[in-house]
Amino acid sequence: MQQIISLNDSNWRFGSVAQQPFSDVNDLADVTEWLSAQVPGDVRLDLLRAGKISDPFFADNNESSQWIDARDWWYVRDLNLELENDERAFLIFDGIDYQSAIFFDGEQLGRHAGMFSRQIYELQTEDRRRKTEASVVGRRSSVGVRIWGSAALPKLKRTLAQQLWARLVQPLYTPPSEPFPDRYATLKCQMQFGWDFAPRLRTCGIWDDAAVVIAHSVFIEDAWVKAKVKRQKAKVAAISIRLTIDSDGVQSVRVVCRVSGKNFESDAQTFQFDLNLTRGTQAREIAFDLSDARLWNPWDRGDPNLYELEVVIAKSAATKPAPTHEDVLDSLGTTFGIRDVSLARAPHALLTAEPWQFVVNGQREFLRGANWVPLDAIPGRLTRADYAARLQQARDAHVNFLRVWGGGLREKRAFYDLCDELGILVWQEFPFAGTLLDHFPRDRAFLDFVRAECGDIVRALRNHPSLVVWCGGNEFSPRANQPIVKKLRAVVKDKDGTRPFKPASPYRDESHNWRVWHRSANLRDYRDDATPFLSEFGLQSLPNLEALKRFLPTDALTAPHALWKYHRAELKKLGRYARGEERGARKSSAPLASRPSRVEEFIDATQRAQAFGLQIAIEHLRRRKPQTTGVAVWQFNDCWPSISWSVVDYYGTPKRAYAELKKVYAPILASFDYALIPRRAGDTVRGDLWIVNDLRVACPHAELRADLNGLQVFARTLDIEPDSAMRVDALAVTLGDGENILRLQVIWRDQTLSDNEYDLNFCDEGEISWLGKLIATVAKRLMK
User: Fold this and answer.
1) Which domain holds residue 730?
2) Which one-letter DSSP state was computed for residue 58?
3) How far apart are CA 711 and CA 543, in angstroms?
4) The pTM is what?
5) In this structure, what DSSP letter does residue 157 have?
6) Lowest mean pLDDT among 244-248, 496-500, 760-764, 765-769
């Protein structure tokens, strides 16, 4: 493997200087105070560790650290390079946020803008050898990174017409939203400018991995692996590898590829090729057939088999049967999987309908999904362990698909590695989000920037088999942003070409259903959604009291407080939906949130309402299978301590909706379809019993059981067909006084495949207003 010197450590120092325009400047000598720093990280994290700021996530401390944006920052460290005369050193940053200049021994190597693209600089070149008598070989050197504070981010250049339009439509926006915001001019994490679940916290720092790679006359920059089943019965896969190679001269080399199972036992297979290289950076393609190939599958359809690939480039083996260690010029390792993905139209759909049926390895896959937002509003501190904990929670909740939302990140590599290992499908959006009555820039310079930045996002992620679809971004009109969509489509085709591309989300028949919550519609409104793919819907709820205590002062805990709104609570809507839970359990007409002594009851009521709403929507759409092909709840996780739509809070504590998700996302689901109307004791609830099976396995002689408050009211033995949604029978039960909990179970071979419950007392009596209907209709049209 490559010889890598990791720079991910605490051997860095940082300090601030006055903010300058983004241009060539070296003001390192102006730093007056140096403090210890950690990489990967963030300026705020380093200041927090140094005791210079308070925790920005507690109360409204975030406001007192906004001064950070108006300063520029230097990060420096010593570097001991022990190089042989024929060795070369390359400095690599996987992500610096956002504008930076890189220095080596006081000499600027380059400037860069963009949060997600990789930077590579050779530290020892012919030019450097000619310029200095002292070689970098075997002596102490220094690496410096100048980072511009976020106040220096590019500003959107608004035309006079846009300025006038912005004034006209500003009343239609809810802060922090605004027409033609400056965030459009960057490809920075969009939520950092403020979102309805995220704070205005524009980070800056070395947020992703940093390293020095040692190579010889050849440096392998990238290995792009394409894998396709060639002969399925014979288990043969066609593997092609496109190598990006930097050669310091004309030379003949031997390339050795070694492939072996990463998470399963297999015999290693080795393939060798001879190449003639020219001087400079070049692409070379090699190909071979892999025998005994095993497919990568989503977790509910099989094993997520992964392969390890090691590429070794050595001196020409013209006189040797195989290269020795001394002959190796460079090596690179990567992981890949063999799988096929495509999109098809749902059965009986019109020929003009958009294809929304995901097909993985030739099998239809119903996507039981969730929207993924960044795990931390300061992503520099995210580790593999952080990702592993939350992704395992998703897997345990029977989630087989995550939509990486366009207002967030190209996540760190660990996220995609773990999705590969867990068999979780990924929908990846580019960093564009939230235009309504406006559009992103269309000038040539910005489009060229999009090509470069998004092209590197594709390069970084394309070897991951878990990634199954690219999407242009979140909630913008593809028609109004046609230049951006055209550029992204071309980037995906050029840099990948193996996955479907969707211009935006939502797009053609796909639904973001915000009639419930934002328009205050009744929860039963979800039953009217006939979309083939529902990729956003949800309700806010409060986290548990223990979580509130971690980010709110004591005086803000006993009743709704201004800090609740600062942490993104929408109090009026929380109270409106909590009343549905309250009616069934307490028969009270005033919102619980208005009574300070009952905050814990309000927490419970909001969590129950959220869980019930998700259950209604998900079960309705799963019963519609195969006309509906997938659903994704908004949102799975949080980026900071907040009162939001998440089912797992920032600290990793599940809300009640998480347990509900685990029930209704079970691959085999027992469901009760009944009218959601007010009832009282003595009334009869009538509905239909359903079983949904997302597996390719039949379950003959399974048993469906139903009981009301512990008393059995239905039992039947039946055969469950694979990949099906079937109505089983009608069911009628009479409500008693107190609780009325209906429990459904599917038992097969002494295993409980589904265990589902309904609180038949719960009823939402609110209705959407005519204005709410109008706004929902207009918003849907603007997304086209």
Assistant:
1) 668-759
2) S
3) 33
4) 0.94
5) -
6) 765-769
